[in-house]
Structures are given as C-alpha cells and as structure tokens.
Amino acid sequence: MITEMTKYNFVLLSGDADAFLRTLQGVGIVDITRSQLPVDEESEAASALAAKLHRAIGILNTVPEAAPLNRKPDDAAEAVISLSAERDALQQQLAEQLAGVDELKPWGDYKLEDIAKLEANGLKMRFYKVRKADFQESWSTDYALSEVSTDDTYIYFVTVSDSDDYNFPVKELPRPRRTYADAQAEIDALRGRIADCDSQMAGLKSLTDELQRQLDSTRIALDRCLANASAERTAENYLTVFEGFVPKENEPQLQPVLDAANVYYIAEGAKDADNPPIKLKNNRFVSMFELLTDMYGRPRYSEFDPTVWISIFFMLFFAFCMGDAGYGLILIAIGFALKSKMPKISPLVVTLGVATTVIGLLFHTFFSTDMLGWNCLPEGVKRLMLPSQIASYDGTMIMAIAVGVVHLCLAMIIKTWQATKHSGLNSLGTWGWTLLIVGGVVVGGMALAGAIDAAVTKVIIIVLGVVSALGIFFLNDLHRNPLANFGVGLWNTYNTATGLLGDVLSYLRLYALGLAGAKLGEAFNAIGTQALGDGGAGWIFFILIVIVGHTLNLAMCVLGAFVHPLRLNFLEFFKNSGYEGTGRRYNPLTENVNN
User: Fold this and answer.
1) Which of 387, 477, 377 is nearest to 432 (CA)?
2) Which tens digit of pLDDT belongs to each residue from 427-480?
3) Topology of the domain comprising 5-63+209-274
4) Backbone angles phi, psi at 323, to 5 degrees
5) Cα 544 to chain center, whole Å?
C-alpha cells in the first residue's frame, strides 16, 4: 500500500536554512526534494570523502584483527587505501614473478658475470631444451655442449661458440635474464613487503569504528548540503524555499517542531503531479517482497503497489520452478541458518522454502522421486496430490498455464481499475478488452466445469463480444473521430491477439524449469543407484553422488526459480497491468544513516 503524503513548502530566511535542516534531520520524517548527486564544490568534497571512507572501511573489514599501530596516521582512510593499492601492485608483481620462475629452475644457479666475460672474449652461450627422445649423443662431440639438467620429459643444455654464423638443429631459447636464485630472492622480498602491508592494515583495523562514525557524520552533512543546494532562493537570496513531503500519519509529530521554528509553511495533500516520494506500508509477509518491487522501480503516487501481487505470485512461481518438497526443506534450513548474518533475507528464504515444500508435495516430488510410488503413503494422502495427467496432458503443465491465465486476467482487471480511476468514461476501450478476455475466460471455465450449458454459454459469449466490440472499436477515446477509433481498435486487436498468446505461453517456463530440475535429479539418483550396486563400499559412492548431484541441481534450480518468476512479474504482469514503476523512494532527512 502506498502511504498518503502531505506536501510542504517551507519559507524562511536564508541564514536560518542550515539550522532548519538540522532540526528536520533530528525529526527524521521530512523528505526534502533534493539532488542525489553533488551539485557544488562543498557537496563534491563531502561525496568524495564519503566514498573514500566507505572504501577504507570495506578494505578493513576483510583483514584480521591485530594489535593497533603505535602511531595513528593523520588520514587513516588514505593510509588504508594507499596500503591496499600498494599491496595489489605487489601481488601483481608476485604473480608475474611466480609465472616465470619455473622456467628458470632447470638452468640452476650461475653467475651472469661469467656469461658477460665469455661474450667479452668473443664467445656466445646459447640455451636449448629438447625432448629426451630427440637428443642425439653426437651433439656432444660436434659442438661445445654442456648438459645442465634433465627432467621426466626434457634435457636442458647450453652450447658455446665463437661465431655468429652458427647452425644448431634445435631452436634456440631466449637467454634467461636472471638466475633461479635471484628470482627466488625477489619473490621472497615481494612476499615480505606484502606481509608488511598486511601487518600495517591489520594494525589499522582498530580504527574501523572511528572511520564508520566519520562516514556516518559525512553522509548526514552531505544529505543536508544537497538539500540546501537544491532549495529555491528568492528575494535576492534573502529567502529560501524548501519543498518537502511528510507521511500524513506522521504530521502530528512534525507540527510541534514547525510551531517552535521561525518558519512559514504551506501544507496540502500531495498530488501525482508533485512527484511525491513513495513509502510502502505493507504487512510483515508482503514487506518481505518489497526488495523485488524496488528492483524494478517503486510505483508513482497515482499507481498501485504491486508488492502484494508479487508476494503471492513470485512465491507461487518460485515454488513451481523448484517443484520438489525435499529442496523446499533444504531452503527452510538455509533460511534459518542465514538468520544471524542476513536477517532481512532469512524470512524470505524460509517463506520460499515453505512454498516449495507445499507445491512439491502437491506435485508429489521429493528429491526427484515420485511420492505416488511410495507404499508408505496412505491412499487418502495421494488423492490430495496433483494427478500426473489432466485430460491426457501433464498435470504440472496444465497448472502452469492455468496460473498464468489467472495472473494475466488479474493484471488486466488492475489495469481497468487504474484506467477508470484516472480516465473515467475514457477507459471504455480498456473495459472492452477486459470484458472480452477476462469474461471469456470466466465463462469458458464455467462451461468446462458444467456450471452453465452450451446454449447459455453461446448467448453470454455473443453479448460479451458485442459489448466489448463497442468499447474496443468505437468508444476507446470519446474525444476522437469514430473512424480513427475504429482504426486504433484494429491495430490494438492485432497487438493484443499476438502479444497475449505469447504472454500465456511464457508461463510454460514454470513447467519446463520444474521438469528440467526433476529430470536432472532423477539422473543423479540413477547414477548413485548404479554406484551402490550390492551395497558395501558402494554406499560411500552412492551418498557422495547423491549429495554432490543434488547440491548442484539445487543451486541451478534456485537460480532459474529466481530469474524466471521475476521476469513473469516484471514483463507479463506489469505490461498487462499498465504498471510503470517510475516513482522515487521515500528518503527523509535523518540522522539515522541506516534508515
């Protein structure tokens, strides 16, 4: 539900603006219209400082605790960032050194000065390696050759000659620029410098809380600065005008503050044209799904809150895609395990796990085994489960299509309600489509269920068709020429007929994903059963295969069960309901940075 807002225009002396904003921050309920990006030098400096502090805190959170440094740096955040950058550069150098050190090892330790002396005397040393099978003993007599080392595959050797016109039947290797001992020394030095950086950063770990307080203070000041910079100045900058919004339910909390302040204000109910911020107010269950709504965008003030519908259908679609009671129990366990570290996500995971368990029982699937084949289950319980076949089609496929049709019909009803609310009689075109499609689905369902006979069904369908045609083709815009309305109606008919069919078929993904997960799980079960054999040591392989296989399958199923239900809500449902989601989030001036 969208919280009703009251719009305020505050007028005060420019010299009192900062103090007034501090007062509003103390109250923490007024959303002052402001920029979200730096707008002047002061806000740019505050934004840069906040970014630096945030980055430094993030770095310190990854390092272990250690004894604090004896001397606190003047700029702790800059020190942490510099140390981190130095450490990253050293790590890159170390990776480059390690990549080349193995190529030096076969050549052993030698002095580069000795090679330089040979070259000064007109002699050149060349480096080679060949496979053992390709090495010819005659090379040792025909050339000044010395074997350096050998391993399982190659022989490493050098030759010395006094002529540049030199022909050896093996491709020459580039001469090493350093010895293996020198490379190891450089690696040890780099590791020592990295350890020193780690030690210094660990010593700065104790400053994390101080940096966090500084970050919170900077963010509060930045928020106030952005609000002040976005205000309107009038009367040659003597007066400042702030625009703000307050939830109507919080007005009694604001009134005493305004009465005590030296400020003139005008309060009126917010309108959609004012673009007020959106604060959602839902019950405990629905509020868990607000993060999904925010992923798309909050509604405009005149729109509907889709969270309640997302909470129902996303949960249902997720459970359809998972379709396994065993996986549902695992998700419930994971949800409870996340309670301490991710308290906001934990209830949602548990809820989705419960839904998956229920739908999995309905689909009679437990860790990819068919529960209808369990002799331990009473027949009465099995009769409560979804039949494998409905009208000679897969039962889960029929359910997926049926749920999709309901989802789309609900979207069209919401769109009609919104159109009527905003356009009145000019929404007759929308009414026509809703009567035709939703009415046709309802009448068709009743006819299939035997609630009405064929003759009555025919009459109702004809009436619905005629009434709907009037709205679709002739009354879709009361201010437009009837011929133009007819042309628009034909175009809308083409788009709706083609688009609606595709939208309905999109819901087959619920069936397909559930089927894919079930079949992959069955494959792991079959492989495990084969490995089991007659038992004994086979139990170890059976347990490993089943655990690893179902863990991988669960991870893939969760990914698909999150993405595709989200798509069905964001595309099919939002498109057919007319939802735009261009509203802005309620963001009051506050001293609580975690708000």
Assistant:
1) 477
2) 788 888 888 888 888 888 888 777 888 888 888 888 888 888 887 888 777 777
3) Alpha-Beta Plaits (3.30.70)
4) 60, 25
5) 31
